[in-house]
Fold these 3 entries.
Entry 1:
Amino acid sequence: MPSKSFWTGKRVCVTGGAGFLGSYVVDRLLKRGVEQVYIPRKAEYDLRQLEDVKRLLTHARPNLILHLAANVGGIGANRAHPAEFFYDNLMMGVQLMHQAYQMGVEKFVSVGTICAYPKFTPVPFREDDLWNGYPEETNAPYGLAKKMLLVMGQAYRQQYDYNAIYLLPVNLYGPRDNFDPQSSHVIPAIIRKCVEAIDHGQDEIVLWGDGSPTREFLYADDAAEGILLAAEHYNAPEPVNLGSGQEISIRELAGLISNLTGYQGKITWDTTKPNGQPRRCLDTSRAEREFGFRAFTSLTEGLQATIEWYRAFHKVR
């Protein structure tokens, strides 16, 4: 259950709070009555730079940090920028957690990534399988950089008794998502292709891979609630999955989105492009057991809301 009393008098720093997931986290913090929410802007604080991190914490003086900031994108962006994704995400997280510990921040919540799991993890993904292999190659640098925050949090807990926790959200989607074709993930990419095909009278869209991989998707507002429940109730070293527990193939997903958008043309699969990880679906029992989190938005309901938001946004551009 949500705990408003947990947040009473707390100063909360949400890195990435101006981003997609972060905007939902901030909304839910405000609904819980949190009066002091600090959102560092990239133009003012480069979290890759130590002096900027120190300046941020000195200015914000948070009791709790929700670390959502990331340099992230889809398969294409990961293939084009593996070094940047590794360096940026590692440096942001490591320096921020170390300074948070040194400056007495009470709790640090790291939001990791499903990309940290091994390429051939048994389905459903259980947190205990996190170290049983190397991540899928196209996003391994990003996944491993974020995974180091789990290692760091556990090490700081062991040596310093520092309260750092680590969450593993599955693929997120929803209104306010990134629809840039150069960096978007699969759901916004397919929605944009379908809507633009309808608008331009096109009878074919082309999607990457062969459609066989499976994915699990979590509505961003659901994920935000999971993050806050964990901040309120979870204080242990083990990582925790956040997901919906429902698996769908990319081919089925494309069919669902085309139906919801009203696109009736052909879907062509470009098999010269990579599929990514073969299957993704999480065991979400630990989150439910430890802090009572269960996803509450169905995929169809969430997709419909996302499509409606994109159409409204698309019209004003």
Entry 2:
Amino acid sequence: MKNMKYRMSWFFLTAFLMLFSGNLYAENIDPDNDGSQYAYAENVGWLNFEPGQGPGVHVSNDKLTGFVWAENIGWINLSPATYGGVLNDGVGNLSGYAWAENVGWINFNPQVSGDPTHYGVTIDNEGNFDGWAWGENIGWIHFQSDSPIAYKVKACKVTLPDLALFCSQWLLEGDLPANLDYHANPAPDNPVNLFDYYLLAKYWLDFCPDNWPL
């Protein structure tokens, strides 16, 4: 459901919202479109963080929102309204609980009695998930592996490759990835300029908004 939550009179902020407002559960998973959207649980199979048939997952510096789809257990809610929710401490350490109607709570920072190892889910500076979540009724969920089948979950972050592409299109006009406000002002003579740089700087080293073009 498309929406524009915040209405402001300032031109910059209005254009910014026109570009980046989206679904209530907008997602920013798998930025390279290479399938980096799957975690795996031995007892229930694949968990898809960017499902094609419904809302996906949005990662921010303070929390995860949206839904994961698992073929064998259904939807997993990362931000239930009444209790739980998966939190991010700002440096990539996740905690809290997701909820699945069919299997109950899933802990993103599980502790093993007598074992000092940190098993919880983390996100590195490039957006890659790692570690383990635990569901009492389904066991361990792993977020990254190289063998026997490579898989991982990755969130989009605004980093140097975005800046490099932006610089390569500086002052060019039209519907280009670096022309971040083009959809708000789709004139053919709308160049990549300081306003677009302002939008880039807003998300520098942060998680991308939904449909980030760079």
Entry 3:
Amino acid sequence: MKRIESKFKESFYESLVRGVTGVSPDVLQLMEEALAEEKSSPAKGMLEAMLKNVELAQKLKKGVCQSPGIPCIYVRCGPEMARIDVQKISRESIMRATREGYLRPSIVHPLTRKNTGDNSGARHTQF
């Protein structure tokens, strides 16, 4: 069981990082096609900057966007995962990704506005 949990934990974290440091190939292709078809110089400049940003984010392992929002996670597991604490692993992964600079620590308590600094705000990883 420990091996499955360890593998899930690392895969989950890597997926989280990949999700904020890149864009899917289809989106990248659409951005490149838009650049090729764009006539407006300001719009072309913006698309070029966006494509360069994606390239640098992937190369430097940095977020594509400075504020990627609140993680929204859906996990579908088979029976072998029944004894793994998916909620705990996702919470720890989000906190780790925040500490390592992939996620901006912007989640605050809705009433007190207290910021934990690691996106572990109350009830943000409830299932």
